[in-house]
Design a protein that fits this description.
Number of helices: 6
Low-confidence stretches: 1-27, 29-40
Mean pLDDT: 82
Number of strands: 16
Distance between the termini: 71 Å
Largest sheet: 8 strands, mixed
Structural class: alpha+beta
Radius of gyration: 23 Å
Shape: elongated
Length: 305
């Protein structure tokens, strides 16, 4: 036990006090001023945010993070978007009461040629109290989800997907959803593509209704499922269609998804009236709330026959 404690303390000291080397000053495309270490073993980087010119931020690599992963993380849209969010009107650093001193890059998961998930720890302090603000971040970026309502013979049905979700160790019923590709921001196109991949239903972009667009603009018109630990923000779309009952029967239990990407998905169809108690997927529950409030306030366009 004593040896383990000593090793932990030693590792922590190495992280907090990386080897210093002569630095080169440069300016990247986003306008951040950077100091790049010339000694690769230390894996340190310094940035100066446009709004905080006098407060350089140290970026460090945790043990086990490779040089390529470290620089990929710093250059990723996930990390750049997080830095941008800090400085927006509602950002943590906007009013000057908090300061970002250091970021520790802890893990990088690649999705083929791009970063899918990024794990890091931010050292942010409240200037008035001197207390550290919890800053463990699991970054995965923006995503879209689709609430598909199928009208058939006087009944409204919802299309869900059944997937094995390893993080919770369960089979989950949820809305068809997917992550946005890096830097493209094609929200509607991604929503349509995910639905087609996960359910086999062909949709038209013009049929989409952005339910999250009804939120106040101060929210960013997205929802945050778990802002205490994850940066994920979700746009939720609605699509309504009239279909024959045979379509409902055909969809029930249909195997879908991109098998070559490990997606083992089954389509499930449930009556809309039972949806709110059918699954614990927060995307479903948020979609139901947004839909019902939008209907109550007369915000939805008429469903074409």
């Amino acid at each position: 036990m004593a040896v383990t404690v000593l090793r932990t303390i030693s590792t922590s000291l190495q992280i907090l006090n990386p080897l210093r080397a002569p630095n080169l000053i440069s300016k990247n495309k986003k306008g951040f001023f950077c100091k790049m270490s010339t000694e690769s073993p230390s894996l340190t980087h310094s940035i100066t945010l446009p709004s905080k010119q006098s407060q350089p931020v140290q970026i460090l690599a945790a043990p086990g993070v490779s040089s390529s992963d470290f620089w990929s993380a710093i250059d990723s849209s996930l990390f750049k978007q997080w830095l941008h969010n800090l400085q927006t009107e509602n950002g943590i650093l906007a009013n000057g009461t908090m300061t970002l001193n250091q970021v520790l890059i802890q893990g990088v998961d690649m999705f083929r040629k791009r970063i899918g998930f990024l794990k890091f720890k931010a050292e942010i302090f409240d200037k008035e109290t001197g207390n550290k603000v919890p800053g463990i971040v699991f970054a995965r970026g923006p995503a879209v989800a689709m609430l598909i309502l199928l009208e058939s013979e006087g009944e409204t049905y919802v299309v869900l997907t059944e997937q094995a979700r390893v993080p919770v160790g369960r089979i989950i019923l949820e809305l068809p959803a997917g992550m946005l590709d890096d830097d493209k921001g094609d929200i509607v196109g991604t929503a349509v593509r995910e639905v087609e991949e996960e359910t086999g239903i062909n949709l038209n972009v013009e049929d989409m209704v952005d339910l999250t667009a009804f939120l106040d603009s101060s929210t960013g018109c997205t929802v945050f499922p778990s802002p205490g630990g994850c940066d994920e923000e979700i746009s939720i779309f609605l699509c309504r269609k009239h279909v024959d009952k045979e379509v409902i029967t055909h969809l029930q239990g249909k195997e879908t998804g991109l098998r070559e990407h490990g997606e083992l998905i089954k389509a499930r169809v449930v009556p809309y009236k039972n949806l709110w108690r059918t699954t614990a997927d927060c995307k479903v529950l948020v979609a139901v709330a947004l839909l019902e409030m939008a209907k109550k306030e007369g915000l939805l366009p008429s469903l074409a026959t």
